[in-house]
Structure formats: structure tokens, C-alpha cells
Design brief:
10% of the residues lie in helices and 38% in strands. By secondary structure, it is mainly beta. It has a 7-stranded mixed β-sheet, with no helix packed on it. Strands 4, 7, 11, 25, 26, 27 and 28 form a 7-stranded mixed β-sheet that branches. Strands 19-18-17-30 form a 4-stranded antiparallel β-sheet, with no helix packed on it. A hairpin with a 4-residue loop joins strand 8 and strand 9.
């Protein structure tokens, strides 16, 4: 009698397990109904990613460019020779120049860099910079869920509010992530489920989500959303997101002001200077792909730092150089010039209709 009861139970449990496995397989594959006789047919290959790294433009001015920051109060010479006339003293400040040429003075045993025509500095008087290799992504299809990037090298946790476990892998800065759910811990911090039961605290990631088009922007117009809270941006054609990445907006002392603006002037490269005679005096030569939108505040490439995802600027919206180049040439096709919407998002918006946790569309895939 007992064996007759157990057998149907085993069959039922096996059927349930098969159903769950099948549902999981269907969720992970592209499936469709071929016919009523055959049923589901699935392609088990992963679907193509909606996000792709932008290809480098054939006419890009970025490859091969070198920049350096001048040491304070150094002399600038007319020739790569210590006996040549001194053109000027550079003074002190945040002074960045393009490297136009190099020369090796064998008699002096010294390397020289030309920063402008007729202006040479000793190699020891300029610190060469490293241009960020990070870039955002082209968005091929509309995101099903929020996405973004890890901002610091950090291990994930296995639950909201928990410390990283002993087997957790440290995710490098700029690792791309998608968000499957979110929860608030006991201290009020938001944690994001980045898949496979891995959670990251909001302070370690920058998250982008679809935003409605501002009322001022027409259905066919081009616009860029700059989120001061998340320190990121998204580019749209009407209601369709086409690109996204990280930014560095103004530090608290020099804020980037919120509002809706339009680009009024463009430069493939331009000189930026400010605060002459003050402690924050700066010179940034050949700032690439500059788009002024609020008086002297601009979207532009920044070759002098790699702090994207954090405030770091003197008021402008700094972008990784490849992102600024993409936005510059893409927005040339705008019906009128590019709209720029600067605002501060509320990350708790996800929780307005829930208590402590929210799941996003596609969760569990």
C-alpha cells in the first residue's frame, strides 16, 4: 500500500522539477511556438546584448594625443635648450597642455616637450597624464531594467546590508551591471540586486533608468539627461535612449546648475581658463568636443582625470573623451541643437509603491 502512494508522489515531484527546469530554460533562451503539434522551439544561445561599446570614428582626433600638467612656477623656453630665451614663467595652478612635439638635447642629456609653437618645457617640468579608456555604451534596444557601472573595486554581498562573503569576487571599477531588484537596509541605504543573488550598496554603483522626455523637448528632438545624483548621463532621440555613460559634474564649491538648456556653441577643441590670480586658477588646452549649454558651462571630454561617476569639475559636465566625441557628432544631426536636462534624481523613487524591496521587469532571467 505504501509503495503505491509513494510512486505517484515521486512522479508528481519529478514532473514539478521538470516544469521548473523547463520554465527556467525558456526564460534563459529565445523561445517561440512553432506549431500546436511541435510546441516550443528554443534557441539556447544568449540573446545579443542591447549595449555595445561605441566604435572609434575613422576621423577621430583622440588616438595618439598626449597631454601633461605643468609643475608650478616653471620656466618656458623658446627652444629645447637651457641657453635659449625664457618665454615666460608658467606660474602656479592646474595647468594642462597638449604635447605637440618632443626633442632630445644630447648635449644636456635632457628630454624636452613642446607645448605650443615656440614654447618648450623640460621633461622634468611636466607630468604626463593618462587619458581614461572608459567609455559608455550605445543602447541598441530599450532597457528592460536599470543598468550602470561599478564605481569602485569592491566585493558584492549575498544579501542587502550584509558584508561580502569569503568567496565573493571583487568587481573592478567600471564593471557594467544590470539591476534585477532593489532593497533598503535597516540604515536606509539602497542595495541593488545585480543578478545571481549578488547585491551592491548604492554608494558603489551608478545606475541609469529610462526617463520621460521633458515637456520642452519635441518627440523627434535630441536631448541628454545629466543626473547629478548618480553622476551619469543618457542620450535620447525623442523617447528612445540611444547612449549612456558616466560624468563628473561640478564640485560643491562650483556646482552644475539644474535646469533645461540648449547647446548654443560648439568647438571640436577649445581652450578653457578661469580663476586667474586665485587659488583655483586653471588652464586646460585643447578641451575636446565642447558643447556650451548654460553660459560658460559645457558638456566636454576630459583628458585630465579618470574620476567619472563622481563630482570633479569646476562646473562643467566632464565626460570620458570617447563619450563626448560620440555625443558631439551624433547631436550634429539634431533637428535643432541639443537639449540638455540637468537634474538630481531620487533613488528612492523605486520604493514609492512598495515597502522595502522592488523587482524590475525581467527579474529572474
Amino acid at each position: 500500500m505504501m509503495s503505491r502512494i509513494r510512486l505517484p508522489l515521486v512522479i508528481a515531484l519529478a514532473g514539478l522539477a521538470l516544469f521548473l527546469m523547463t520554465r527556467s530554460t525558456l526564460a534563459a533562451a529565445n523561445c517561440y511556438v512553432l506549431s500546436s503539434d511541435i510546441g516550443y522551439v528554443c534557441d539556447t544561445n544568449a540573446p545579443p546584448s542591447p549595449y555595445t561599446e561605441p566604435p572609434l570614428r575613422p576621423d577621430s582626433t583622440l588616438p595618439g594625443k598626449k597631454y601633461g600638467r605643468l609643475v608650478d612656477n616653471i620656466n618656458v623656453y623658446a627652444e629645447p635648450d637651457m641657453d635659449s630665451p625664457i618665454v615666460r614663467n608658467a606660474g602656479d595652478g592646474y595647468l594642462w597642455h597638449s604635447i605637440e612635439d618632443t626633442a632630445n638635447n644630447s648635449e644636456e642629456g635632457r628630454l624636452w616637450y613642446m607645448i605650443d609653437l615656440g614654447e618648450w618645457v623640460r621633461a622634468e617640468d611636466i607630468k604626463l597624464g593618462t587619458v581614461s579608456e572608459f567609455s559608455g555604451v550605445e543602447v541598441r534596444t530599450q532597457p528592460h531594467r536599470p543598468f550602470g557601472w561599478v564605481l569602485v573595486d569592491f566585493e558584492y554581498s549575498e544579501a542587502p546590508g550584509a558584508e561580502p562573503g569569503p568567496t565573493a569576487i571583487k568587481l573592478p571599477r567600471y564593471t557594467p551591471v544590470e539591476v534585477y531588484g532593489a532593497a533598503v537596509d535597516e540604515e536606509g541605504w539602497i542595495w541593488y540586486d545585480i543578478g545571481h543573488g549578488r547585491w551592491m550598496k548604492q554608494t558603489y554603483v551608478s545606475i541609469i533608468d529610462l526617463s520621460p522626455r521633458p515637456a520642452e523637448v519635441g518627440p523627434d528632438e535630441y536631448w541628454v539627461e545629466v543626473d547629478l545624483y548618480e553622476q551619469n548621463f543618457a542620450a535620447y532621440e525623442g523617447d528612445r535612449m540611444v547612449y549612456a555613460g558616466l560624468v563628473s559634474s561640478g564640485l560643491n564649491r562650483w556646482p552644475t546648475y539644474e535646469g533645461i538648456y540648449q547647446v548654443w556653441e560648439r568647438h571640436l577643441a577649445t581652450m578653457m581658463t578661469g580663476a586667474e590670480g586665485k587659488i583655483d586658477y586653471y588652464v586646460n588646452e585643447d578641451v575636446p568636443h565642447t558643447m556650451y549649454f548654460n553660459v560658460d558651462i559645457a558638456l566636454h571630454g576630459a583628458y585630465w582625470h579618470d574620476r567619472f561617476g563622481y563630482k570633479h569639475s569646476h562646473g562643467c559636465v566632464n565626460m570620458p573623451p570617447r563619450d563626448a566625441e560620440w555625443i558631439y557628432f551624433w547631436s550634429e544631426n539634431a533637428p535643432n541643437d541639443l537639449w540638455v536636462w540637468v537634474h538630481t534624481s531620487d533613488p528612492h523613487n523605486y520604493f514609492k509603491q512598495t515597502e522595502t524591496q522592488v523587482e524590475f521587469e525581467g527579474a529572474g532571467e
